[in-house]
Write a structure and sequence with these properties.
This protein has 340 residues and is α/β, with parallel strands linked by helices. It contains twelve helices and 15 strands. The structure holds ligand G4F. It catalyses: GDP-alpha-D-mannose = GDP-4-dehydro-alpha-D-rhamnose + H2O.
């Protein structure tokens, strides 16, 4: 039975990837952080699934930057495939927590690569990189694997460090390391402080009759939003190739935050009109004029990537992968899930 090791198994991508690998017959080992509050809700259904059985999903306590224990764990498991997904992934928070962001997204990759040098050389590694490496792509639209990096926040800087290390260890030590440069990918399992989840949760509450108001920052932020379960399929495909390489994972289409919000409200039958500008901007219900969304300075970042759009042509040609769900369909899927 093939063994996979997932860091970040309790996160959005980790939980979907665990489902995928278990369905393919893998034994899945996951790294979990000890915390006083229980944080495994995204994988609980797998732990009680009788088809998975006790031996096929194994969780290990650990910390990415507790180097010796992490090293020991990798050697004990001896996985055929490692998916490194863990790390502080909130871009806005990375301005407030730059050190932890760089330790978890940058230095942890180095520790992992160093441990891998001593593992069986056939072990394959997927590194979760991000469109935030492009930050300000200076007219390069869409961005692909050859677009120069220009990160605009500590998170993007850490991901550049991680990605470049992955390439260096591939070239200089012959390790099988793939960088997946993933653009935004969302789902009902998205963390509650990412914009699509904030919107879908808020729209569902408002449709249910709550007098809620969604507070957001930059409504002009333009992102290439795809559906997370489709992206974990691409991660797996990368590690099944004959040769390790880097791939952009994206839909190739963008929407603004404002458009995503309008689509979410439309999906729950609450059409809205946006009025005003900047921090004065609000969205009002068309039927009774009530404010349902307002812009708040609290959620603006010191600098925000204006528009990020990926070119997934290489992933399509070489992995046979194509994102299917995006835009209004994604917004509708997410609000429907909130409504249960
Ligand atoms: O949902 P977001 O926080 O995602 P962001 O910053 O694009 O980063 C996500 O995608 C990256 C690419 O895959 C990942 F690398 C990263 O780890 C993360 O998963 O913000 C999206 C846009 C931005 O323009 C932001 O300024 O939404 C804007 N926004 C407006 N109001 C908001 C809010 N973002 C958040 N989180 N919260 C708001 O209230």
């Amino acid at each position: 039975m093939k063994k996979a090791f997932i860091t970040g198994i309790t996160g959005q991508d980790g939980s979907y990837l665990a489902e995928l690998l278990l369905a393919k017959g893998y034994a899945v080992h996951g790294l979990v952080r000890r915390a006083s509050a229980y944080n495994r809700s995204r994988i609980d259904h797998l732990r009680t699934d009788e088809n998975v059985g006790s031996g096929r999903l194994v969780l290990h306590y650990g910390e990415l930057n507790d180097v010796t224990s992490f090293h020991r764990l990798l050697h004990k498991i001896e996985p055929a495939e490692i998916y490194h997904l863990a790390g502080q992934s909130h871009v806005g928070l990375s301005f407030e927590l730059p050190e932890v962001t760089c330790l978890e997204n940058g230095m942890a990759t180095l520790h992992l690569l160093e441990s891998m040098r001593e593992l069986d050389t056939s072990t394959r590694l997927y590194l979760a990189q991000s469109s935030e490496i492009f930050g300000a792509p200076e007219g390069e639209d869409p961005q692909d694997e050859t677009t120069p990096v220009a990160p605009r926040n500590p998170y993007g800087c850490a991901k550049v460090f991680s990605m470049q290390l992955g390439k260096v260890y591939r070239e200089s030590h012959g390790l099988f390391v793939c960088n997946g440069i993933a653009f935004n990918h969302e789902s009902p399992r998205r963390g509650e402080n990412f914009v699509t989840r904030k919107i879908s949760m808020g729209a569902a509450r408002i449709a249910a009759g709550d007098e809620a108001v969604i507070e957001l920052g930059n409504l002009d932020g333009r992102r290439d939003w795809g559906y997370a379960p489709e992206y974990v399929e691409a991660m797996w495909r990368m590690l099944q190739q004959d040769r390790a390489d880097d791939f952009v994972l994206a839909t190739g289409r963008t929407h603004t935050v404002r458009e995503f919000a309008a689509a979410a409200f439309a999906a729950v039958g609450v059409p809205v009109d946006f009025q005003g500008q900047g921090v004065e901007e609000v969205a009002r219900r068309r039927d009774n004029g009530a404010i349902v969304l307002r812009v708040s300075p609290r959620y603006f970042r010191p600098v925000d990537a204006v528009s990020l759009r990926g070119n997934p042509a290489k992933a399509k040609a070489e992995l046979g992968w194509k994102a299917q769900t995006q835009g209004a369909d994604l917004a509708a899927l997410m609000v429907e899930a909130e409504r249960g």
